[in-house]
Amino acid sequence: MRCGFISIIGEPNVGKSTLLNTVIGTKLAIVTPKPQTTRHRILGVKNLPDAQLVFLDTPGIHRGKTRLSRFMMQAVDEALIDPQIVLYMTDANRSPYPDLAFLRRHLRQPDVTVFWLLNKTDRMASAQLLPLIDDFPDKDAFAEVLPLSALRGDNVGALVDCLVRYLPESPAHFPPDMPTDRDERFLIAELIREQVMLRTHEEVPYAVAVEVEEFRERRDGGVEIEASVMVEKASQKGILVGRQGQMIKAIGTQARRAIGGLLHCPVRLHLVVRVRRNWKEHAGTLRTLGFGEMRG
Ligand SMILES: Nc1nc2c(ncn2[C@@H]2O[C@H](COP(=O)(O)OP(=O)(O)OP(=O)(O)O)[C@@H](O)[C@H]2O)c(=O)[nH]1
Ligand SMILES: [Mg+2]
Q1: What's the confidence (pLDDT) of residue 296?
Q2: Most buried among 86, 166, 243, 245, using CB within 10 Å?
Q3: What pTM value is reported for the model?
């Protein structure tokens, strides 16, 4: 048996969460075309007959000044404390080269195995790929360099096979029926936030946080969920609610479907939009959203 932690890092929007979902085969992390979609470290367990691969999806590497941003970057930092393997993912079409200085600053154990994954190869001609990799002077810093398409699954099987070879012999860390460490409330809040991010623009997607306040199982087998959608300003609340409540209604309908797919039961969803000024700086609010204490 082989087992180990595999951290997926990289700039925002390169496809880290897409890879997690493709490898695990279920949607554990939300995905949108907007950068900074993921805000937490999300664990996903892949069980094979003779191996258990424990993936950590992380927020995109960015420089932000808010306390929320610092927590997001702390999640990246924590995923780099003690992994067996790091997958440094880049978008082969946009900025294809990993930031080795960042990696060296953040890796606690410098001899960790690091792969360079060039994602979104479905968007480029394969003839462009090899010269691109060849041109990178530090490519020897990586144990493996793998082009792939997380979206289409191209080369993802080869990646998994390769990962197994690098993992140490070890018993499984997690029971076989535990795909993630996140609870249903977290996944539900994320599915709601995904719909908000997909339907809003400019600063609004980034002004929003979602908290599940009530989760009740009904006697008929369905569930009843109440969630608050937090925004920073009254003007953002206006946008989210929309004319005659159309926007929040559309968000609710899509989110309800997605949550039904997750829970496999009928869902009633009540969304309330609340203005909570400066929530990105508010330690108590951030704690309820799952951002722990900053390490000293
Ligand atoms: N064409 C193509 N698009 C992809 C691929 N992988 C991901 N995407 C798209 O890229 C966008 C970002 O994907 P995510 O998985 O959310 O990226 P991420 O790295 O997790 O982003 P953050 O959470 O913001 O750091 C989405 O629109 C995905 O559908 C791929 O292999 N090919
Ligand atoms: Mg993500």
Answers
A1: 38
A2: 86
A3: 0.97
